[in-house]
Each structure stands twice: as structure tokens, then as C-alpha cells.
Write a structure and sequence with these properties.
This protein is of the alpha+beta class. The protein is about 30% helix and about 25% strand. A hairpin with a 4-residue loop joins strand 15 (about 275-285) and strand 16.
Length: about 700
């Protein structure tokens, strides 16, 4: 509560008043483990909506919450009439959890609700869930729990559960009932008028199709991998298509959950035996909730081969025994791609793609949803700056400038991680490339000479021969072939060449090289190191475009409510369009701060000044900054906190700067500008130029 109260105090400056009358959110109905929300129409009293978001998945909902907190009215359009309970994504990385930490305690609620870390920290490779273990990899390291480089930790939490928590946040924000439009589909886009986009929506009401037109200043496509928005505006994808076809089987079994809980807890189980091959995702072992991913080879195989009864048989084969309580909930085919949209922004900067609509990754490493959430975080403050008249629409183009290179890097990393996953079955004689080649020959080669039924028999027969490589007779230490394969498998695990879960360097260390920032030319790299496909640790950086490094601080105040330990990230509010200037307690730095406060006032934005004092500074030092910053009061004096077991290097040393330098941080916690040491004499002109560039005014 102390931290919550302090954060409310930090955000009290220049609080924006709501522009709209607040109404209660329309009903939350829970039906068959799914949410359903009443549909409504756009309010007639506001002819042009500031922002329309198409897609009410995690990315669209996060963006709507961020915009709402920034005082920007938006509506969310969702074609489905109910929210799916299919788990889908489940790994939330550090950076996404940092964003969730700002959303009314969302990160804390996820941490409390998720399974205990010891239940999901491992990937297990086995011949069956009750059979021999071929190897296991623990993906959590001691530093992952210490919260030294980040105030949060990663999480394992199913997407449909996350969606429910996000919907509750919208409800707590008193979202207008007519701002969440369920059962509405976007069917046409008209961008012929420069000032706004006209969207035609369709819904079935009382058994009849009803169309409605919505005018909006910004249209955001958050409508997933098969994005209708992307298709309507004609944006193409580039990359690798059809890496793998799979069937996702969502089921529950408390018996299986109880067994794994006691005998071999893990997140992913890679199962190879003579009868079946599959990957089991343990979403919640305590609740017995699982998703089984099975390779799918159409047209020889079809969805009828994966009916509920057949799926149960597959589960039994992979479990190594029959289970009495298996409940198959949902069966979905899907295709794995590695593609990025050619453009993220189009139509005079008024149509924007985010999340899976902009990039489609293999699930290896969990980059899909996390990259999308970070898309939303990057975009929200820029939309707010545009809608509030602070910046022209060109600031929205910097979203593409910054996020598309990040998406390309994450695509490359996820593909490398997927290839690493394939190295394990290849090591034991089950090369997926060979399986795909066999399927290709049967589907498009000589196999086409035979009837489809015979093609299926041929495919099943060849795959059966392949699975024989996993037999106990062959895959054992006494068999020279098996011994060699098992040795190769051990080397893959020992050298970290199998599928990885965490990538701290890319998770926290991604950096924008150009966009809404100023490159300082003071030794900052002008390139980004390509991903290796293996875990690399995050190294804090204060280079422009980087995420603000986290460290612990304490306010230098005599107020009892301020006697708390905070993260540097807590200095940046989520409910106000505010920049943060970090300086040391020097006369020249105070002069720079006054110039920044003055320039920001001219440009219509807020700046908070943070004065970082050494760790041994006494409480009450805040008065020392009052006089040099007068008449401005939007500042805070803080001292570094050295927690037991953490790196004792100072804040400025960690940033590779001297304490007479300065850092300007954007509302999305990325560094817009910095000076390593010393400041220019003409600080007013300097700060005007900086804000003008960052806000796309020049």
C-alpha cells in the first residue's frame, strides 16, 4: 500500500481530467469458462472516435488500458461473441511483466495466481510421461529470482486467464459500455479523407446482418495472425511460411496433473516413442490443464483423425498409460510461420498494425504475445501525443521505425530457437526435416499417382518406421547406435543447444537505433548484435533507445509514506504523458533541468526531474533541490539503495556515465536522449531541439 500511495503522489502533477462521461462496463457473463460481453453501438454524440482498436486479445486490451489511463478515448472491436478458453500463449517475459506492474497490480496478481516456479522451470524429454527420461533442462538460474536487473520476474500464465484479468482492469477503469464492441467484425476501410478513417463494421443482431460505419482518427489492427485489417489495407508479409503444421489439443486430467506434480513437474514435455510423438504443455499441473501439440500432415491426415476419442488415445500413448478422467475441451489446427509485415503503419499514419497482425513467430521462446504487448507500450504514448495535439501524425511512423527492426530480430531468434528444438529429435534419429520431405514427396511427388487413402497408408507406414528409432531395443547404452545418439543428446543439453525459454539480453536489452530519440554519438553502438539463439545475460545500458536500467532507490523525504524502496521505473507514471529527466546534484545539471522544464512547458508536455544522490545521503536532502529548481516543483530527490547481494556499482557507473551527465526518459521507459558528462552552455536551445525531435516536430 505504501508503494501504491507513493505512486499516486508521483502522478498528481498535471493530472488530466476525463473528457468523457463515465458509464459502467456492460455485463461480464461467464459461460462455459468463457467471458461474454454485451454488444453496443458507438455513441452518437462523438462523431469521430480518437482510436478504434480491432481485436480484444491481450495486445488490443493492453493498448486500450494504456490509452484509457492516458486520457485517450478508444473503442475495441471484437468479431467473436465469446472469449476463448484455449490457453494459447503462456510465458510472460520480464519486460512484459514490467509493463503489467504498472497496470494496477497486474504483475503481482499474475505472480500470485500462476503455478509455483518449481512446477514449470524445466523442460523434460522422455519416451512417455511415465516412462524413461532422456534428459531435462532447468531454465531458471539464481539471478532470475533476485530482481536485480528488473523489479519483476518472468511468469507462466495462460493467455485466456490473462485476458480475464485485463478485462477486469477495463472494468475497474469504468470503461464506457459502448467502447467494447463484441460480435462486431470490420468488413471495409475507407481512407479517402485525410482527417479520419471510416470503418464499416458488421454484426448479426436478431438473426439479421447489421452494418455500421465508425469514423476514427487512428485505426489499430490487433486482430491476430490472420489480420483482416492487414488484408484490407493490402500490407504483405515476408519471411518463412508453413514451418510446421500442428494440431493443438486442449484437455484436462487431474490424474495426470497429480502424477506430474509428484513425480516430474515441468512446463514442456517432449515425448518420443514408437506409437506417437508430441509436445505437452503443462499450463497448470495443479488444475490438470494441458495442451498437447501434435504434428499434422494434411491432406493425408485430416481433422477427423483428431476427433475427441482419437485424441484421448494419443494422450494415453504419450502418457504411457490410460487415464480415467481425460476431458478433451478443444481441438484446433494451426500453422507455424515466421513472417513480419512489410509495413506497420500506412494510410497517412492512421492505420497501424500491432501484435500478431504485424508479426507471426514460432512459439519457441514465447516472443509472440510478449512482442505484441511491447508494441502496445511503445505505441500508446505516441497515439496520446498525436490525439492531444502535441505531435503531428508523423510521430506514429516512429512506431514502425522502432518496432519493426525489433520484430525482425525476434523472428530470427524464434526461428533459431525452433531449429534448436528440432535438434533433439534429430539426435535420436527422428529428423523432422526428413519427415517433412517424405510428406512433400507423397503430397506433390510420385505419391500423387496413388489414391488419397493409399497415400495415408504410405505416410503412416513411413512414420511408423521412423518412430521405431525410439524403441528401447535401439535407444540404449548397450546398442552402439543408441549409445552414440544418447551421447549426442547429452551434449546438446550440456552446451545449451536445445530449445531455450529465456533470453534476457533480448528481453530487456532490445534497443531502438532511430525513431523518437536522439543519437548522442558518445560511443553508443550504431548496430544491434544479432541473436545467437542461446541465452545471454542482460547488460544494463543507458544508450539512447535502450530501456531505462532498473535500480532501487528511496525518496529523500521525511514523509512516512515515502519511506519505501522503489524502482527507477516507478518514477515514470502510466497515467500521464510525462518525460523523466535524471540528473545529479550539480549546478550545471540544475540549469539543464530548468531548461528542460521550460522547454517541455512550451511543447505542452510534462517533465519530472529526478535528482539521484549517493547511497549514503541522509533523509531531508530534498530541500536542497527546491531552490535551484524554483519555481518548478515537479521534481524528486532520491538516493540509491544497495540491497544485500546486489552489485554495489553506483547508478552512474552502471550507466557508464558521470554524475554530471543527464538522461531523458520517454513515457514508455526508453531513453530518448542522454549526455554522458557535462552539459552545453546553451541549455534552453538544446532542450528545445531535443523535445522538438523526440515529439516529431522537426
Amino acid at each position: 500500500m505504501a508503494i501504491s500511495g507513493f505512486m499516486k503522489g508521483l502522478s498528481c502533477f498535471h493530472r488530466a481530467k476525463p473528457r468523457t462521461k463515465i458509464h459502467p462496463l456492460h455485463c461480464f457473463a461467464r459461460r462455459s469458462r468463457e467471458f461474454s460481453i454485451s454488444s453496443s453501438s458507438i455513441a452518437d454524440d462523438d462523431p469521430v472516435l480518437p482510436v478504434l482498436i480491432v481485436g480484444a486479445g491481450p495486445v488490443g486490451l493492453v493498448l486500450s488500458i494504456l490509452l484509457k489511463k492516458l486520457g485517450v478515448r478508444c473503442s475495441v472491436l471484437e468479431r467473436r461473441t465469446e472469449f476463448s478458453s484455449h490457453p494459447q500463449a503462456h510465458f510472460i517475459n520480464n519486460r512484459s511483466m514490467e509493463i503489467f506492474r504498472k497496470l494496477d497490480g497486474l504483475a503481482e496478481e499474475i505472480e500470485k495466481s500462476q503455478p509455483a516456479v518449481d512446477l514449470w522451470r524445466k523442460f523434460i524429454y522422455c519416451t512417455s510421461l511415465t516412462g524413461r527420461i532422456l534428459g531435462s533442462v532447468d531454465h531458471m538460474q539464481p539471478q532470475d529470482f533476485e530482481k536485480v536487473v528488473s523489479p519483476t520476474s518472468v511468469a507462466h500464465f495462460s493467455q485466456y486467464k490473462l485476458n480475464r484479468l485485463l478485462l477486469k482492469r477495463l472494468q475497474s477503469l469504468s470503461l464506457l459500455g459502448n467502447e467494447l464492441l463484441i460480435g462486431h467484425e470490420c468488413v471495409a476501410i475507407d481512407n479517402t479523407i485525410d482527417e479520419y478513417i471510416t470503418v464499416t463494421t458488421s454484426q448479426i443482431k436478431d438473426g439479421k446482418k447489421k452494418e455500421e460505419k465508425i469514423q476514427c482518427r487512428v485505426l489499430v489492427g490487433a486482430d491476430g495472425a490472420g489480420s483482416r485489417i492487414r488484408s484490407l489495407v493490402g500490407i504483405e508479409l515476408s519471411g518463412e511460411k508453413d514451418l510446421q503444421k500442428l494440431v493443438s489439443i486442449h484437455f484436462r486430467s487431474r490424474d495426470l496433473g497429480d502424477y506430474l506434480l509428484k513425480e516430474r513437474p515441468g512446463m514442456l514435455f517432449f515425448i518420443f516413442n514408437t506409437e506417437a510423438i508430441g509436445v505437452l504443455v503443462a499450463h497448470d499441473v495443479k488444475d490438470g490443464e494441458f495442451v498437447l501439440q501434435m504434428p499434422f500432415y494434411p491432406p493425408q491426415q485430416n481433422l477427423d483423425d483428431f476427433n475427441s476419442e482419437n485424441c484421448k488415445k494419443l494422450i494415453f500413448k504419450l502418457a504411457g498409460q490410460e487415464l480415467s478422467d481425460v476431458e478433451v475441451i478443444d481441438i484446433k489446427p494451426w500453422v507455424m510461420h515466421a513472417e513480419v509485415a512489410e509495413k506497420f503503419v500506412c494510410c497517412n499514419n492512421r492505420v497501424i498494425l500491432v501484435g500478431d497482425a504485424a508479426h507471426r513467430f514460432p512459439p519457441a521462446g514465447g516472443f509472440g504475445m510478449n512482442t505484441g504487448i511491447q508494441d502496445a507500450h511503445n505505441l500508446a504514448w505516441k497515439i496520446a501525443a498525436f490525439v492531444k495535439g502535441i505531435s503531428p501524425s508523423s510521430i506514429l511512423k516512429t512506431y514502425e521505425t522502432e518496432r519493426r527492426p525489433t520484430a525482425l530480430i525476434n523472428t530470427e531468434l524464434s526461428v533459431k530457437n525452433f531449429r534448436a528444438a528440432m535438434a533433439v529429435p534429430a539426435a535420436i534419429g527422428l529428423n523432422p526435416t526428413v519427415a517433412n520431405s517424405v510428406h512433400q514427396v507423397i503430397s506433390a511427388g510420385f505419391g500423387t499417382l496413388f489414391p488419397s487413402a493409399l497415400q495415408k497408408v504410405m505416410l503412416d507406414g513411413i512414420f511408423s518406421i521412423g518412430r521405431a528409432q525410439t524403441s528401447e531395443f535401439l535407444l540404449n547404452e548397450n546398442n552402439p547406435v543408441g549409445s552414440s545418439r544418447l551421447a549426442k543428446l547429452r551434449r546438446i543439453f550440456e552446451e545449451g543447444k536445445s530449445l531455450q525459454l529465456q533470453f534476457p539480453a533480448e528481453d530487456l536489452g532490445f534497443r531502438y537505433l532511430e525513431g523518437a530519440l536522439i543519437s548522442d554519438g558518445n560511443g553508443a553502438s550504431t548496430t544491434v548484435e544479432p541473436p545467437s539463439g542461446r541465452r545471454r545475460e542482460y547488460v544494463p545500458s543507458a544508450d539512447p533507445g535502450s530501456r531505462l536500467p532498473h535500480t532501487y532507490i528511496r525518496p529523500l523525504s521525511n514523509s512516512p509514506t515515502n519511506k519505501v524502496t522503489l524502482s527507477t521505473h516507478d518514477l515514470i507514471p502510466v497515467d500521464k504523458l510525462e518525460f523523466l529527466l535524471i540528473i545529479g546534484p550539480h549546478n550545471e545539471s540544475y540549469q539543464l533541468a530548468r531548461a528542460a522544464l521550460s522547454a517541455a512547458e512550451e511543447f505542452g508536455v510534462s517533465v519530472k526531474v529526478c535528482i539521484v544522490w549517493p547511497a549514503d545521503t541522509n533523509v531531508g536532502t530534498e530541500g536542497k533541490s527546491e531552490s535551484p529548481l524554483s519555481p518548478w516543483t515537479n521534481f524528486i530527490d532520491v538516493a540509491e539503495v544497495k540491497k544485500l547481494g546486489t552489485n554495489l556499482v553506483s547508478w552512474w557507473d552502471m550507466c557508464e556515465m558521470s554524475d554530471d551527465g543527464a538522461i531523458l526518459v520517454r513515457p514508455d521507459e526508453h531513453i530518448a536522449w542522454r549526455v554522458k558528462s557535462g552539459v552545453d552552455e546553451d541549455t534552453i536551445s538544446e532542450m528545445r531541439s531535443i523535445f522538438s525531435a523526440v515529439l516529431s516536430l522537426q
